[in-house]
Amino acid sequence: WHGWAGNPDDLWPPFGDASRPAGQSRADRRDQQRRDLFQDAKRRPPQRQRLSREEIVDAAIAIADAEGAEALSMRRIAQVLRSGTMSLYWHVSSKERLLDLMRDALMAEVEVPEPSGDWRSDLRAFAVSSRGMLRRHVWLMDFVGGRPPLGPTTMLAMDRALEMLETAARDYETRLQILESVNTYVSGAVLREAQEIRARDAERAASEEFGGDAERLRAEWRDRLDATGLFPRFVGFLDQNIDPDAPETMDARFEFGLECLLDGIAARFGP
Known about the structure:
This protein is an all-alpha fold. The protein is built from eleven helices and no strands.
């Protein structure tokens, strides 16, 4: 939509702010530009007079990537841009509006394939790209539960995705349901992966705290469970020494679930 001659603001819905609740890719390059902006903040002259909305949004995304969404504030953005806080409001009316703009900007990192005629392959590529974007900006998971911002970039991605699914279903409602099912799976998978990372960090800290006793304590816990006779299959699972959250199997587990979902869609709507 950047080639469109009109005002991008005119493409947003006519209601207020949305509710909250191989090689270097285009997304990688954009992320690097945001990191450079964040790291170069101290070298910028103070009280810069010229700001753009895109620069403010990029700075906000860089802050959220580096420090988490909870660190995001107009004051923090102004510090990074070496500008006055009030000057940001000439370009962005509120923090809520800023979050809409950030979410819409990040949709540009999701690759929606040109329809190839093989909707399953196209939909799979879309799901993998969506997961990649969310993994790069995992803080975004705090906001995906709300209504999507429906900015021009988001609507363009949705339009292309609906076109991609034309060979799967004729009516818009069914295509939208397919798309929502895949988006729900991707969001759930990324949320689970974020939880796994936090759990590994907690387990690593516990192992460091207990040192050599960690394995002994785990073995004693296993024996207590076994002695009750209530959990034979769970104890058998422990004896197999399978790590369901192993980082080296994360991609394979995502692919397994995605293929199962696509199998179900294909069984219902045909090849």
